C-alpha cells in the first residue's frame, strides 16, 4: 500500500464479508456496492410499512449482485413476485412496489395489475422504481392507461455501474451498442458518464483521461460538463485511479465476433454467463454418494456463481482452455495428498490441525469437482468437428484468406439450419475482415438465409485483441508512438487532464503500479478482460487495470442485441 | 439464445427452496471471525459442514417465483431458529451500518428527488407537460425552502431542460413560439439524454403541425432519429409512414409497411397484404424476396387446404402413417420443401406441391435441395429414393453416383436417421478421401469397408489394430484373419 492510506481502501475488514471478492483488487469496489445499497435502503424506507416487491424479471440478476434478500427483509419487504399480467397474487401488505426497467410493454402489465387490485378492495399504496432511469414515455403510457395517479412514489434507481468482481464493473445495458452506434441515441453514454462521476465521487478525481472514438469523446465531454455543473464542493477524496481510458467498441469490432478461447470465455460462449451466474446441464453434476444408487437424477439446471471469490476459478478463468486441464489435474493431486495426510496425523495436535483444515479442503474439493465437470462439458464441444471447422474458418478470415468469396462453411451452416445468430456472426466476421462484403456475396448470403428457417429454434488463439493492444500501448510507450495506426481507426483520439489540488496529487512509490480504469463503450468480452488481467499481472507491466463496460457480452449476445424484435 | 430462454422457462417452476440463503451477513463482522479466517487462511467458509457448500446460491438471479414461494412458506410459520438468528444479525448490522461514514457524494440520484414524497402532491413530468394549471403546485409546509422554487414557472429555457434532465417537474407549455420550441429541442439534444429529448419531442408532436414538425426534424438528424425511435416504440405506424414519405426515404417506408404483415393473422388477408407490398420501392434484390414471400404463402394456402382435406378423409396412406404435426402455413421455404419432400415426393412437376416445382419456382440451390430431400426421404427410410437422389446418367447412358454435398455428409445424415449398415456402407464406399472413408467406417462400424480399405492400402498394422477392436469370434474377425493370412497380398508394413 506504499505508506499512504485511503478511506476507500482501508477498513477492508469491515467490508470483507459483504462481497469479499470485490475488495481483493487494487481498488475496493465494495465502497461502490455499499453506496448503491444505501440508495436502495433509502428508497425502501420512504415507503413506510410492510411491502411487496413486484419484479421485472430481468432486474433480479443485476440486483442480486448488490443485495441479498435479507437486506430487503430488514426493510419490511415481506413478499416478492414476478411481474405478470392480470392480478397480483394476494399479499397482506401496505405497500406494493414495482421494480422495473423503463419499458412500455411493462407499463401495460403494471396498469393491469393496479386496475385489478383496485377492484379487489382495501387500498394499497403503490410505488414504482424505475431502473436505471425514469422515463417520460413510460409515465405517459401509465397516464394514458389511467393509473398514473395511483402511484405515490415514482422514482429512479440509478444502478449505472454494477460491481461484478474486484476489477470489473458493468452497466449491463444490452442495448447500448445499438443505441450509440446505430441509432445515435447517446442516452447510455450519458449514463456511462454519470456512472463515472459517481466513481469519482467515491474514489477521487481521475487526473488523466484518454480516449479513442466518437463515443469516448462524447463521454469525456459530458464528464467535463457535469464537473462544471457540480462545482459546489471540491472533491476531497484522494484519487485511487491514475488514468481513465475510454474506448469505443467500434474501434475494434472484430474481437467480439471471434470465438473466445479462454475458460471463462468458453463457458460464456457455450452456456452464457448471466450476472456472474451460469446454468449448466445437471447430468455431470450428479452426486456420487454411495447408497444413492442413482435413483433420482437431478433435473434442475446446475447453477453456479463464477467470480474470484472462488480461488480455483480465479486461477483458471483467464487461461486458454488448453491449459486448464493440467491445472485441474495438478490440483486434484494436491488435494488427494492433503486428504491422505490424515493417516499421518498421530498426535492430538496434528489431528486438530488436520480437522481445522478440513472445511477448506472440502471446499477446494467441491470447487475442483465442479470445474472438472465444466471442463468436461466444454471439451465435448471444443473437440467436436463443427467447433473445429468454425474455428478454422475464423482463423482463415482473420488471416485474410478468401474473405471476398462466399464461404462454403457458412453456406453449409445456413443449409443445415444452424442457429441464425451463429451464421450472422460468421458473416459479420467475414465482413469486418474484408472491410465490408461485396454486394454479390452479401446478396447470396441474404437469399440463402431468407430461404431457411429463421427457426429461432490463447485468448483468441494466436490473435491479440486490438482493443487490448491499444490499452497496452497507451501505458507504454504511449499513443504518440502509434499515431499512424490511430488515424486509421475510426473516431478521434484525445487526452484530457483534470487538475488536482496539490494535496491530492499522488507521489508514486518506486515500483508502485499505476491504476487505469478502462471503459469499453458498447461492450466487452471475457477474453478481452482476460487479456487485460494478464497485463495487470505482468511484473514489469507498470499498470493495473480496472475494467468497466456498458455490457459484458460475447459475439452471440452482441448480434442478438442488434436484431429487431418481431412485433 | 433460445437455449437460455428455454432453460429459463424450463427451470422456472422447478427450483427448490434453496433459492436463497440468508448469507447476507453484510457488515457485522466480528473480530473473531476475522482473525479466525486469517489464521486458517480460509475464504468464505464460515458455517458449513455440508460438502455442497460451494453450491450455496443467493437469491440473486434465481427465479423470483421460487423466492416468493419460499416467502409465502415462511410468512405463516413462526421463524425457524436460523432465520431468527439472521434477523438478529440483521438488526445488529443495521445499527453498525449507521455508523459508517457517508461519502461526500453529491451525485446521489435519490437526492435529486428529495422532497416530493407526499402522496398525491406529485406531478409527473408528463402531467407538467400537458397541464398548464398550477392547481397542485401549492407548496407544503415543512419542505426545505429551496424546494419551493421547484414549482416556479419562470425557468429559463436552458434551466427548464436541465431540470427535466434531473427529473424535476417543469411545464413546457409556456414555450409558445416555434423558435422557443426549437431551441428547447436543441438544448435537449445537447444534453444527450434521450429521456429529455423524447420529452420535448412529445411536446412538439402535440403542439406543432405535422408539416412543420417534419420540416424541422429533417434538418436535425439526432432529434429525427429519436423521433423515429419514439414513433416505433409507441406504435404510431401512420405517423411513421408519413414521416418516411415526407423524408422521401422510400426504402424505409417500404420495409416499414412490409413489417405490418406480421400483425395479420388470417392467411388470406396476409397474402393479399403481401401482394400489395410487391410494387413498393424496395432496394435491390429485396423486391424479389418480397415476391417470393407472396408466392410461397399463396402456395402454402393451396397445399394446406388440400392436405387437410386428404388427412381428414383418411384415405391416403402417408397421412395415416405420419399425421401432420402442424400446419404448413407461414413456414419458411426450406421447411416447406422438407414437407413436400415428405408428403408429395413423387408428384409430377406440374403440381404446386411437388418438390421439383418448389425448387424451380424459388431457385433453390442444388445443395440445399439435396440436403432437404435426403433428410426427408431418410426419415421415411425410403432408401430407394435416397439412391435415386445421387444417381445421374451421362449422355452415353452410364449411371454415376454424385453428391453435391459430398458423400461424407450424406453418410452423417443417413446415420442420424438410423440407416442400416448396408445402406451406410454403400455411401461410405463412395467417399473419395481414404482417411475420411476409414474414419467414417470405423465410427459407424462398417467392418467390411474398414477391412477392404486396409487391404487395398496394404496396411497390415492398421488391420491388426482393428482386429483388436472387433468382437471375438465374430464374422468380421474371421474375415480379417482370412485377409491377414492371404499370401498374395504384399503388405507394406
UniProtKB/TrEMBL annotation, chain A:
It is found in: Cytoplasmic vesicle, Clathrin-coated vesicle; Late endosome membrane; Lysosome membrane. The keyword Transport applies. Its main location: cytoplasm. Keywords: Protein transport, Transport. The keyword Transport applies. It is a peripheral membrane protein. Signal peptide: none annotated. Pfam families: Sec1 (PF00995). Belongs to the STXBP/unc-18/SEC1 family. This is Vacuolar protein sorting-associated protein 33A isoform X3. It comes from Erinaceus europaeus.
TrEMBL record, chain B:
It holds the Pfam family Vps16_C. It is found in: Cytoplasmic vesicle; Early endosome; Late endosome. Keywords: Cytoplasmic vesicle, Endosome. Residues 177-277, 357-471 form the Vps16 C-terminal domain. GO terms for biological process: intracellular protein transport; vacuolar transport. One of its GO terms (cellular component) is late endosome. The keyword Signal does not apply. This is Spermatogenesis-defective protein 39 homolog. It comes from Erinaceus europaeus (Western European hedgehog). The gene is VIPAS39.
Amino acid at each position: 500500500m506504499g505508506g499512504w492510506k485511503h478511506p476507500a481502501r482501508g477498513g477492508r475488514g469491515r467490508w470483507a464479508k459483504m462481497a469479499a471478492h470485490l475488495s481483493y483488487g487494487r481498488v475496493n469496489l465494495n465502497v461502490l456496492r455499499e453506496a448503491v445499497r444505501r440508495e436502495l435502503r433509502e428508497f425502501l424506507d420512504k415507503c413506510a410499512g410492510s411491502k411487496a416487491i413486484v419484479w421485472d424479471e430481468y432486474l433480479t440478476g443485476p440486483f442480486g449482485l448488490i443485495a441479498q434478500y435479507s437486506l430487503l427483509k430488514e426493510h419490511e419487504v415481506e413478499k416478492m413476485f414476478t411481474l405478470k399480467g392480470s392480478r397480483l397474487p394476494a399479499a397482506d401488505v401496505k405497500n406494493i412496489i414495482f421494480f422495473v426497467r423503463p419499458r412500455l410493454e411493462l407499463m401495460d402489465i403494471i396498469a393491469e395489475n393496479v386496475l385489478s387490485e383496485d377492484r379487489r378492495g382495501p387500498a394499497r399504496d403503490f410505488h414504482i422504481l424505475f431502473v436505471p432511469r425514469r422515463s417520460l414515455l413510460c409515465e405517459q403510457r401509465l397516464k394514458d392507461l389511467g393509473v398514473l395517479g395511483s402511484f405515490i412514489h415514482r422514482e429512479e434507481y440509478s444502478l449505472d455501474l454494477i460491481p461484478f468482481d474486484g476489477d470489473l464493473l458493468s452497466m449491463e445495458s444490452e442495448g447500448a451498442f445499438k443505441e450509440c452506434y446505430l441509432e445515435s441515441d447517446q442516452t447510455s453514454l450519458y449514463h456511462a458518464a454519470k456512472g463515472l462521476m459517481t466513481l469519482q465521487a467515491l474514489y477521487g478525481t481521475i487526473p488523466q483521461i484518454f480516449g479513442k472514438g466518437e463515443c469516448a469523446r462524447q463521454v469525456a465531454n459530458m464528464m467535463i460538463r457535469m464537473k462544471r455543473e457540480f462545482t459546489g464542493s471540491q472533491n476531497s477524496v484522494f484519487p485511487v485511479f491514475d488514468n481513465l481510458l475510454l474506448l469505443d467498441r467500434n474501434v475494434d469490432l472484430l474481437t467480439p465476433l471471434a470465438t473466445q478461447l479462454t475458460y471463462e470465455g468458453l463457458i460464456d460462449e457455450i452456456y452464457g454467463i448471466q450476472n456472474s451466474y451460469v446454468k449448466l446441464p445437471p447430468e455431470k453434476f450428479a452426486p456420487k454418494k454411495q447408497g444413492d444408487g442413482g435413483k433420482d437424477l437431478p433435473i434442475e439446471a446446475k447453477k453456479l456463481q463464477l467470480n474470484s471469490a472462488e480461488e480455483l476459478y480465479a486461477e483458471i478463468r483467464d487461461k486458454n482452455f488448453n491449459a486448464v486441464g493440467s491445472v485441474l489435474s495438478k490440483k486434484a493431486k494436491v488435494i488427494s495428498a492433503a486428504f491422505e495426510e490424515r493417516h499421518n496425523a498421530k498426535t492430538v495436535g496434528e489431528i486438530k490441525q488436520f480437522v481445522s483444515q478440513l472445511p477448506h479442503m472440502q471446499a477446494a474439493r467441491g470447487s475442483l469437482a465442479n470445474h472438472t465437470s465444466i471442463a468436461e462439458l466444454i471439451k465435448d464441444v471444443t473437440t467436436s468437428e463443427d467447433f473445429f471447422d468454425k474455428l478454422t474458418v475464423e482463423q482463415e478470415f482473420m488471416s485474410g484468406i478468401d474473405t471476398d468469396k462466399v464461404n462454403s462453411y457458412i453456406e453449409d451452416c445456413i443449409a443445415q439450419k444452424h442457429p441464425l445468430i451463429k451464421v450472422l456472426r460468421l458473416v459479420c466476421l467475414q465482413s469486418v475482415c474484408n472491410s465490408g462484403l461485396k454486394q454479390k456475396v452479401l446478396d447470396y448470403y441474404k437469399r440463402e438465409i431468407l430461404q431457411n428457417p429463421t427457426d429461432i429454434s490463447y485468448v483468441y488463439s494466436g490473435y491479440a485483441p486490438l482493443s487490448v493492444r491499444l490499452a497496452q500501448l497507451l501505458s507504454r510507450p504511449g499513443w504518440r508512438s502509434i499515431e499512424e495506426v490511430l488515424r486509421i481507426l475510426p473516431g478521434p483520439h484525445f487526452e484530457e487532464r483534470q487538475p488536482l489540488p496539490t494535496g491530492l496529487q499522488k507521489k508514486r512509490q518506486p515500483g508502485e503500479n499505476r491504476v487505469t480504469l478502462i471503459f469499453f463503450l458498447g461492450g466487452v468480452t471475457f477474453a478481452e478482460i482476460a487479456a487485460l488481467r494478464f497485463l495487470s499481472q505482468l511484473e514489469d507491466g507498470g499498470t493495473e487495470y480496472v475494467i468497466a463496460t456498458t455490457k459484458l457480452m460475447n459475439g452471440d449476445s452482441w448480434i442478438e442485441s442488434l436484431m429487431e424484435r418481431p412485433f | 439464445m433460445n437455449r437460455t430462454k428455454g432453460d429459463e422457462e424450463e427451470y422456472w417452476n422447478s427450483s427448490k427452496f434453496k433459492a436463497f440463503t440468508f448469507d447476507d451477513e453484510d457488515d457485522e463482522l466480528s473480530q473473531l471471525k476475522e482473525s479466525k479466517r486469517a489464521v486458517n487462511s480460509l475464504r468464505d467458509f464460515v458455517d458449513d459442514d455440508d460438502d455442497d457448500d460451494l453450491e450455496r446460491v443467493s437469491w440473486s438471479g434465481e427465479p423470483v417465483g421460487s423466492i416468493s414461494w419460499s416467502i409465502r412458506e415462511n410468512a405463516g410459520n413462526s421463524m425457524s431458529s436460523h432465520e431468527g438468528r439472521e434477523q438478529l444479525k440483521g438488526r445488529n448490522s443495521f445499527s453498525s451500518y449507521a455508523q459508517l461514514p457517508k461519502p461526500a457524494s453529491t451525485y446521489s440520484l435519490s437526492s435529486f428527488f428529495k422532497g416530493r414524497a407526499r402522496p398525491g402532491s406529485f406531478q409527473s413530468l408528463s402531467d407538467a407537460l400537458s397541464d398548464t394549471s398550477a392547481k397542485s403546485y401549492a407548496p407544503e409546509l415543512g419542505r426545505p425552502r429551496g424546494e419551493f422554487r421547484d414549482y416556479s414557472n419562470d425557468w429559463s429555457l436552458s434551466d427548464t431542460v436541465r431540470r427535466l434532465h434531473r427529473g424535476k417537474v417543469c411545464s413546457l407549455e409556456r414555450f409558445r413560439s416555434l423558435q422557443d420550441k426549437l431551441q428547447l429541442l436543441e438544448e435537449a439534444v445537447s444534453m444527450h439524454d434521450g429521456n429529455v429529448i423524447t420529452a420535448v419531442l412529445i411536446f412538439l408532436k402535440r403542439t406543432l403541425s405535422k408539416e412543420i414538425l417534419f420540416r424541422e426534424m429533417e434538418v436535425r438528424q439526432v432529434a429525427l432519429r429519436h423521433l423515429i425511435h419514439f414513433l416505433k416504440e409507441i406504435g404510431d405506424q401512420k405517423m411513421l409512414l408519413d414521416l418516411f414519405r415526407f423524408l422521401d426515404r422510400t426504402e424505409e417506408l417500404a420495409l416499414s409497411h412490409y413489417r405490418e404483415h406480421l400483425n395479420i393473422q388470417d392467411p388470406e388477408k396476409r397474402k393479399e397484404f403481401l401482394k400489395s407490398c410487391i410494387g413498393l420501392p424496395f432496394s435491390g434484390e429485396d423486391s424479389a424476396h418480397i415476391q417470393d414471400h407472396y408466392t410461397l404463402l399463396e402456395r402454402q394456402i393451396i397445399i394446406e387446404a388440400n392436405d387437410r382435406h386428404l388427412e381428414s378423409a383418411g384415405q391416403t396412406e402417408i397421412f395415416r402413417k405420419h399425421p401432420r404435426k402442424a400446419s404448413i402455413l407461414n413456414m419458411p421455404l426450406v421447411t416447406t420443401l422438407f414437407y413436400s419432400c415428405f408428403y408429395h415426393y413423387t408428384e409430377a412437376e406440374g403440381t404446386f406441391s411437388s418438390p421439383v416445382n418448389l425448387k424451380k419456382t424459388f431457385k433453390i440451390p442444388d445443395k440445399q435441395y439435396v440436403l432437404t430431400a435426403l433428410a426427408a426421404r431418410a426419415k421415411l427410410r425410403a432408401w430407394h429414393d435416397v439412391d435415386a437422389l445421387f444417381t445421374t446418367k451421362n449422355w452415353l447412358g452410364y449411371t454415376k453416383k454424385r453428391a453435391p454435398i459430398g458423400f461424407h455428409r450424406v453418410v452423417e445424415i443417413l446415420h442420424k436417421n438410423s440407416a442400416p449398415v448396408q445402406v451406410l456402407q454403400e455411401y461410405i464406399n463412395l467417399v473419395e478421401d481414404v482417411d475420411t472413408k476409414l474414419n467414417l467406417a470405423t465410427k459407424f462400424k462398417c467392418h467390411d469397408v474398414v477391412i477392404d480399405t486396409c487391404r487395398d492400402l496394404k496396411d497390415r498394422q492398421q488391420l491388426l489394430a482393428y482386429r483388436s477392436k472387433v468382437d471375438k469370434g465374430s464374422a468380421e474377425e474371421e474375415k480379417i484373419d482370412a485377409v491377414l493370412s492371404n499370401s498374395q497380398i504384399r503388405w507394406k508394413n
